[in-house]
Amino acid sequence: MIKMSYLVLLNAALWGKTSQSSNYLQSGPELALDGLLTSWTHTNNETNPWWRVDLLKVYRVNRVTITNRPSNGLRINGAVIRYFFDYGATATFSCGAMEGRYMIVHIPGDKKILSLSEAGVYGVPPGNLAVDGAATQSSTFTGWFAEKAIDSNRGLQQNTACSSTLNQTNPWWRLDLRHIYRVSRVVVTNRKDCCTEQMNGAEIRIGNSLENNSNNNPICAVIPAIPAGESYSYSCGGMDGRYVNLIIPGDMKILTLCELEVYGEVNPLNVFVNILRLAVIDFCIAFQRFT
Ligand SMILES: *[C@@H]1O[C@H](CO)[C@@H](O)[C@H](O)[C@H]1NC(C)=O
Ligand SMILES: *[C@@H]1O[C@H](CO)[C@@H](O)[C@H](O)[C@H]1NC(C)=O
Ligand SMILES: *[C@@H]1O[C@H](CO)[C@@H](O)[C@H](O)[C@H]1NC(C)=O
């Protein structure tokens, strides 16, 4: 019997790849991700039919939804589905903190048909959200590019793994997370070799506005100072935003940053706007009960 995997996704509509064991007529595997309840996937009548989405990378899934067909609903999954789904209904499974790249829906047994109307996977990439973002800064000191603060290298051995602006008025650095997240904390690493004051007074700002280069977004914290080579964590208590900025207000300032990490969750209010509608299924619960 196939081992179930779970997990999920990001905009699977954009990057996920679906497949299934066979296609009955035109009912291909992508129909579970088209957002339409009037279409569904459908395999042939066969042994062990399955449907799968490859999210292309590992995600931490918070929940998975599966929507059954409005008719012939028994084809979603034998006893498992009969129990959990009314025809046309959507069931939600809580998948805790499961992590994975593939989500597979599978019906064990002979002479089975698997048919899904929609599947959704809601989750975020596990760990540091900054690594999937894009960084920019107000000016760049030779070779000290903005991206070096999100290269997963805290730069303690090699200072060229850090970002730095020129000496200027109000230097800033900005991270675009690409989606709106609820940020729980930001971890900032200072350089180790010298010049540790080039972070003093930096404001951490989080929000969705690009006004004034995102430097008018609400403040999470102000960094008085960080000792050489240390990483300090700032709790942002669930601020929502797509942009995370550091800015040092004032004249003749330099902003140097060796690493900035962001941890958080998908903002539930923005789940539909943001992302993560994708497919998946996961019998993280159902199969435990029925096999
Ligand atoms: C699959 O076909 C067999 C006959 O070959 C039939 O008995 C069975 O009910 C079919 N399964 C489904 C799910 O329709
Ligand atoms: C832009 O941000 C800087 C630094 O915080 C601030 O001094 C300035 O007043 C802001 N400008 C506007 C137009 O809000
Ligand atoms: C920026 O340059 C001025 C002189 O032009 C200098 O006094 C100041 O110390 C410099 N700031 C930093 C942070 O190096």
TrEMBL record:
GO terms under biological process: regulation of cellular defense response; regulation of complement activation, lectin pathway
Classification via Pfam families: F5_F8_type_C_2 (PF22633)
Domain of life according to the entry: Eukaryota
Signal peptide bounds: 1-20
Keyword Nucleus: no
Sample GO molecular function, one term: fucose binding
SMART domains membership: FTP
Alphabetical UniProt keywords: Calcium, Disulfide bond, Lectin, Metal-binding, Signal
KW Metal-binding (keyword) present: yes
Fucolectin tachylectin-4 pentraxin-1 domain mapped to chain residues: 9-125, 126-270
Classification via InterPro entries: BG_Antigen-Binding_Lectin (IPR051941), FTP1 (IPR006585), Galactose-bd-like_sf (IPR008979)
Similarity comment: Belongs to the fucolectin family.
Function: Acts as a defensive agent. Recognizes blood group fucosylated oligosaccharides including A, B, H and Lewis B-type antigens. Does not recognize Lewis A antigen and has low affinity for monovalent haptens.
Assembly behavior: Homotrimer.
Identification of the protein by name: Fucolectin tachylectin-4 pentraxin-1 domain-containing protein
Source organism of the structure: Sinocyclocheilus grahami (Dianchi golden-line fish)
